Amino acid sequence: MFLPEFGVTNGLQIFCLGEISSEELIAAMKVAFVFGIPFALGGLYYRLKYKRAKKIHQLMLDTKTTPIGSLKLGPVEIRGRVSSSVPPAPSPWAQKPCVFYYFRVKERQSRTRNGRTRTYWVDRINDRRSDPFQVEDETGSVDIIPGEGEFQINADHFTSSGTFNDAPENLRVLLNNRYGQDTQGLIFNKTLRYHESILENGDEIYIFGEVKQKDGKLVIGGGEMPLIISENGEAGEEADYADGVLGYKVCYYWFFIGGLGISIGVLLIVLFGVE
Question: Which of 22, 88, 165, 242 has the fewest CB atoms in 10 Å of its CB?
């Protein structure tokens, strides 16, 4: 990498006199490009996320709760109770029949570098399953096609294990038989956290999504719009999306300003040097 060795004053004089060669200028531009492009890509990514989240959030604000018996094609917001026309599969941990479950196990690990120890959590198991189900209210029922829908379901079961705290027997068996994982390390127990969220028949939920027609009847899900299935209600989801919009906006501006500043700074250093 080319780094001219001259002071700021001399550099400015040479720059003003036009005595920087085209090779030196190209080298400087390459350095600025290499340093700035990751920030530019990051800024573009978060801008796209920001615009999409902002659009969805505004759509959520503009869409009012509709009785299921009055559904029409397009964006919709409903409330109701979960039901299933077929026997739901059991969840891994609690073994409760459910139309959705998310079973997660995290392990605490540590790393020492330069005399400092950092502790962090690593996902060991992320097991999710969702099946088609129905939501009903006093006016009717509608089929839900969850697909890759966004589930906001509170943890129904939670526990942890560690050095002198053995995992429950059913969890040890589950992790070993189903996931090929062990709760014990070479000597002591691993430090683990377990949580399971489930959606059962009769649970009250809020849904925001798109009504489509499939096989001659109306369904929710399977469209281009995101599908949100939540136990937190309308206000909770709108607040979460508002936070998401703000977070993406901050990241977008941070990457944009950071990338621009780094590119300009590197370009000046390469062009003019520092004694």
Answer: 22
Contacts of 249 (CB under 8 A, 6+ apart): 50
pLDDT in tens, the chain (275 residues): 444 443 444 444 444 444 556 666 666 667 666 767 777 777 788 888 788 778 877 887 888 899 999 999 999 999 999 999 888 999 999 999 999 999 999 999 988 888 888 899 999 999 999 999 999 999 999 999 998 888 989 889 999 999 889 999 999 999 999 999 999 888 889 999 999 999 999 999 999 999 999 988 999 987 778 899 998 766 566 666 666 667 777 887 777 777 777 767 666 666 665 44
What are the residue boundaries of the structural domains of the chain, listed by start?
A: 76-247
Task: Of 53, 48, 47, give the one whose Cα is nearest residue 252.
Answer: 47
- Per the CB < 8 A criterion, the answer to whether 153 and 198 are in contact is yes
User: Token pair of 182, please?
Assistant: 């062990």
b/e per residue 11-24 (b: at least 16 CB within 10 A): beebeeeeebeeee
Looking at the DSSP assignment, which residues form a beta bridge with residue 74?
211
Contacts of 34 (CB under 8 A, 6+ apart): none
Q: The pTM is what?
A: 0.72
Q: Is 112 in a helix, a strand, or coil? A: strand
What's 213's DSSP letter?
A: E
